[in-house]
């Protein structure tokens, strides 16, 4: 078992549309400088914040499963398969990019949220038909228990299910309360604290994890993770459960094998 903590200065940063859109990246693309390159099927994670109305022009994707989850604001999505949709605060859009699709996005000023990429087995995903779906906040299940609000974004009772092995939650813990989760053997929890301060109890230790800090808890055996909110403020954290190790050849290996066959 292990817990790894990454402050904002160990994460990557980027910007688009002449700085109108800025990003903090717990997991950046290869070469962008983030301390974490991937966690199992979790390939990329960016927290975007929009200073002024921003636009990303039409650009291509292939193979990866890409979600955008909004903390606030609104995003207008358009793609070459004819989808033209808006997603608002608390909503999620899912692109399973398959054999290839191009899309553009327009962000309203003040919008913030996450774009996250998951990696399925590219030997199959690269030949699948691309698809798009989106769900608003009220369509995602929310459970309140003992001062904790758990919203399931991917997996379990959520309508969102990916090919890649992944589950995702948006968790708000009332001040002084705890959230507990049992991590199965061979899996990791990757978490990003959005608001507040917390103590993560894992591996018989207690580790402070503050706002904008990224944490990865890896379970070699079934292990309990307890996240305790500070006594002065609620804590909001985004949690993603994935296999600790990618269970099939990576996109790079698939690409190399395809070149060798040619």
Protein architecture, described:
With 262 residues, the chain is mainly β. The protein has two domains: 10-139, Jelly Rolls, CATH 2.60.120; 142-243, Jelly Rolls, CATH 2.60.120.10. The chain has helices at residues 122-125, 251-261; strands spanning 2-6, 12-16, 21-27, 42-50, 54-61, 65-72, 74-79, 84-88, 92-96, 101-107, 112-118, 131-135, 142-145, 148-154, 167-173, 178-183, 187-195, 197-202, 205-210, 214-219, 223-229, 235-243. The strands form four sheets. A seven-stranded antiparallel beta sheet has the order 1-20-17-22-15-14-13, with no helix packed on it. A seven-stranded antiparallel beta sheet has the order 2-3-4-11-6-9-12, with no helix packed on it. Strand 7 and strand 8 form a beta hairpin. The protein is globular and about 50 Å long. The mean pLDDT is 95.
